[in-house]
Amino acid sequence: MQEKTKVKIIGGAIARKGKKGIVTTAQGTGNNLGKVEIYIDRIGHFWYDAKDLEVIEEPPPPEPPKPKLINIKIKQIRIDGGTQIREKINQRTVEEYAEDMKQGASFPPIIVFRDEDGENWLSDGFLRVLAAAMANKNEILAEVHQGSLRDAILYSCGANATHGLRRSNKDKRNSVLRLLTDSEWTKFSNNQIAKTCGVSHTFVNKIRASLETVSSENVSTQPEMSLETNSSENVSTQPEMSLETNSSENVSTRPGMSLETVSSENVSSKSRTYVTKHGTIATMDTSNIGKSSGAELENTSSRIASIF
Q1: Which of 19, 52, 223, 237 could be stapled to 11 by a disulfide with Cβ–Cβ 3.0 to 4.6 Å?
Q2: DSSP assignment, residue 222?
Q3: Per-residue pLDDT for the chain (308 aa), expressed as one digit of tens each?
């Protein structure tokens, strides 16, 4: 029995039977060892055996610890947990952020969730982390929450809804799909999913309906597959990140910070291959990136490789 538990007296002194009180001491000592102290309003404090008390209402759960605002080393940030929801990473925005950082500009803290093993899962701030790497920063300001990888994923579904680079409709769709294709989160109501993802409930209704009507041969819960709707668009259950450049090619960033080109025909002889801190092989195509940013992106890939 916990402190602040509301109880009713069902045993002991007859005069107080049926009266209600609140537990003030859950475990007595000395002469009251094994007993529970309760307070009865306007009467006073009394000790009772737990068997003489009936629980009416449990105390509210403790509030989660408040997030800490600290500078965290970029190399300690995990970005391979599937918490990136955007369809593409806008390379121009990363470069602009990096230049601003070099000039001393301040940015809002990124959001990370630190699990029981001490892993810091990035939930909000991929553009800022990439920009910090490009700007040769070793640390970045972070709001650190206590929570699991799933907590980080759930939070990421609503990231950038009210700040940062505006989300595209595909970004919003990816957020909704992340919940609708999860065995636990798909049980959320459409209104709850809409609130979590920062979209309208009608937007969620439409996507859920499309998943329910899609033909069985196109339905897959595997993260790299897509769910085809009646339109020509394919809705991916696991969004791919890509670095948008001025050229026609996009460089995809998959979990584990592996930088791969979108399709095999886009892979050039100038691709860079390296091993990430988590043992995954990463490749980055730099052959057709615009002249103005080609050298910068080349340096960025080296920087990211050394950090992650």
Answers
A1: 52
A2: S
A3: 788 999 999 988 788 889 999 999 988 888 889 899 999 998 999 999 999 999 999 888 877 778 899 999 999 999 999 998 888 888 999 999 999 999 999 999 999 999 999 999 999 999 999 999 999 999 999 999 999 999 999 999 988 777 778 888 899 999 999 999 999 999 999 999 999 999 999 999 999 999 887 644 454 444 443 334 344 344 344 444 434 433 333 333 434 443 333 233 333 334 444 344 444 444 444 444 444 344 444 454 455 555 55
Distance CA 179, CA 271 (A): 35
In the block, tokens 């470069």 appear at: 95
The pTM of the whole model exceeds 0.70:
no
- Mark whether 103 and 48 lie in a shared domain: no
Closest Cα to residue 153, out of 177, 127, 128? 177
Question: Would you say residue 173 lies in a domain?
Answer: yes
Number of domains comprising the chain: 2
